Every structure is written in structure tokens, then in C-alpha cells.
User: Which sequence fits this backbone?
């Protein structure tokens, strides 16, 4: 790696701390204080606006979440048997997931050295377990949402 011989800007600057500097500051102290008060007011106004935007965002997300929960509750009421079947399927698939994770962790522990040393072995492992685990988790999440008891709305 070659180093460029471009001069870099100084990281530190010199500060004048002589008595003359104090005198000039005290003469302009009123202007400086007014400027600081103006800046603080600007910061306060920006924070107030940011708080308003955050409240709007929370309300928007909350209303979307409440609507989704209401629609899901209506679906469960319209399909009670399917909702119960989803719960049963989620519980069974959860056991499948436990077995799958047990097999995967056993293989990881037995082949830790090969997984760390060989890119081919790692790629084979990811190809073998990755998509299956991702899809299994997705299906379990859907079944759990469709089978869960609706949360009380406030």
C-alpha cells in the first residue's frame, strides 16, 4: 500500500488565551448572549417540530396496527375452525422446528473446524440449512398469527 504525500489538514488549531482576548469578549458579550439565546430558541423550535412529527408517526403506526389486529380478529371470527387448525399445525410444526434446530446445531458442533476453514463447506451448510430454516420460520410465524387469540383492543 503506498502512502500519498498530500499534506493533511491540521487536526488541532492554536487558541489565543491572552488578556486582550478577554477584553474583546466582554465588550461583545451582549451580542454573543443574544446570539446564543436565538440559537437556543431555534433548537427548541426544531425539537418541538420533531416531537410533533414523532407523535404523528406513532399515531399513524398505531392506527395501522389496530386496523390489522381488528381485521385479523374478524378473520378468526369468520373462520374459527381454521384458526384452531392453524394453532394445532403451529404447535406440531414447532416440534419439527425444534428437531430441525437440534440436527443443525449438532452438525455445526461436529464440523466447526471445517466450517471455519473451508468456504465450500460453509456454503454447502448454508445452502442445506438456510432456505429451509427461513421458510420454516416464515410458515410458523404465519400460523402463529392466524391462530393466536386476538389481543384486547383499547
Assistant:
Amino acid at each position: 500500500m503506498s502512502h500519498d504525500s498530500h499534506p493533511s489538514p491540521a487536526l488541532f488549531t492554536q487558541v489565543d488565551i491572552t488578556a486582550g482576548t478577554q477584553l474583546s469578549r466582554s465588550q461583545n458579550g451582549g451580542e454573543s448572549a443574544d446570539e446564543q439565546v436565538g440559537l437556543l430558541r431555534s433548537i427548541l423550535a426544531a425539537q418541538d417540530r420533531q416531537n410533533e412529527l414523532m407523535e404523528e408517526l406513532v399515531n399513524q403506526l398505531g392506527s395501522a396496527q389496530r386496523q390489522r389486529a381488528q381485521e385479523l380478529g374478524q378473520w378468526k371470527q369468520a373462520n374459527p375452525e381454521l384458526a384452531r387448525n392453524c394453532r394445532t399445525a403451529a404447535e406440531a410444526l414447532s416440534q419439527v422446528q425444534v428437531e430441525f434446530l437440534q440436527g443443525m446445531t449438532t452438525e455445526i458442533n461436529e464440523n466447526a473446524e471445517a466450517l471455519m476453514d473451508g468456504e465450500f463447506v460453509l456454503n454447502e451448510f448454508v445452502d442445506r440449512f438456510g432456505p429451509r430454516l427461513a421458510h420454516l420460520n416464515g410458515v410458523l410465524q404465519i400460523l402463529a398469527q392466524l391462530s393466536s387469540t386476538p389481543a384486547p383492543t383499547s
In short: The two ends are 63 Å apart (CA to CA). The first helix runs from residue 19 to 27.
